[in-house]
Design a protein that fits this description.
Elements lengths: L3 E5 L3 H13 L4 E5 L11 H4 L7 E4 L2 E3 L2 H11 L10 H31 L10 H24 L12 H19 L1 H4 L7 H4 L1 H11 L22
Parallel strand pairs: 1-2
Antiparallel strand pairs: 1-3, 3-4
Helix pairs in contact: 1-3, 1-6, 4-5, 4-6
């Protein structure tokens, strides 16, 4: 078995794949592309994926380039432990949560954190159109986090007693939100995002459970200097 994951440090979609590999206890290698240099937009990577997006997985002659498709392939190729449930009922619930997160949580996270973390923009002045747009984005992300807590309820993971595809999709978004608070507090706090672990205690406890799983620490973006905050004494 040989699995090669082409990724960019901090990109949420390939992080999903790395987490799924960790959940299944599978060995893999990574090819870390440098987004700032545009390595994903040039050959040889575009020979693998003309759309110039990550992740791309190479394994056993296959070239796969969609994160959810990769999770589905992993579950068929390496069935245990399952990412999409052990029966039809579990599969339906996990697929529903997974696709909801792909659509709504991903969009809400990107709308707020792209200008904050990627573009590194200063907080716009109160009353401006840009400030209003950021405040609206922050509100949508808070709504999504509250919905996730309701969905999680008292379960250990979104699929029940073991991590599943939904956890792999949701974790990068929630962890990047924490990263934004840790590194851009001066922007996040006025937007109503004090410490997310305090605002969303259920998600914080879930995040700690994910961090405690074997292999998860190795999935963290290499450009993040610190280990997960929850794992630091």
């Amino acid at each position: 078995m040989s699995i090669l994951v082409h990724t960019i440090s901090g990109a949420p979609r390939p992080w999903r794949v790395l987490l799924a590999l960790a959940f299944k206890g599978l060995d893999y290698k990574t090819n870390l592309l440098v987004g700032q240099r545009g390595e994903h937009r040039a050959a040889p990577f575009t020979d693998l994926n003309p759309r110039a997006t990550v992740p791309v997985v190479e394994s056993e002659g296959l070239v796969l380039r969609d994160s959810i498709g990769i999770l589905a392939w992993l579950d068929r190729r390496y069935p245990q432990p399952p990412l999409f449930g052990a029966n039809a009922h579990e599969a339906a619930i996990i697929w529903q949560i997974t696709l909801d997160a792909c659509d709504y949580l991903r969009r809400a996270t990107n709308d707020l954190l792209w200008p904050v973390l990627v573009e590194r923009k200063a907080l716009p002045a109160a009353g401006t159109e840009r400030r209003a747009a950021l405040e609206a984005a922050a509100g949508r992300l808070r709504d999504e986090c509250r919905a996730l807590e309701d969905t999680l309820g008292d379960r250990a993971f979104f699929g029940g007693t073991r991590p599943c595809a939904a956890d792999a999709v949701i974790f990068p978004e929630i962890r990047v939100l924490q990263r934004a608070f840790d590194t851009r507090f001066e922007v996040m706090q006025p937007l109503g995002f004090g410490d997310p672990d305090t605002l969303f205690a259920g998600l914080a406890a879930w995040k700690e459970r994910i961090n405690a799983l074997d292999g998860v620490a190795a999935t963290y973006p290499p450009h993040w200097a610190e280990m997960p905050r929850e794992n630091v004494a």
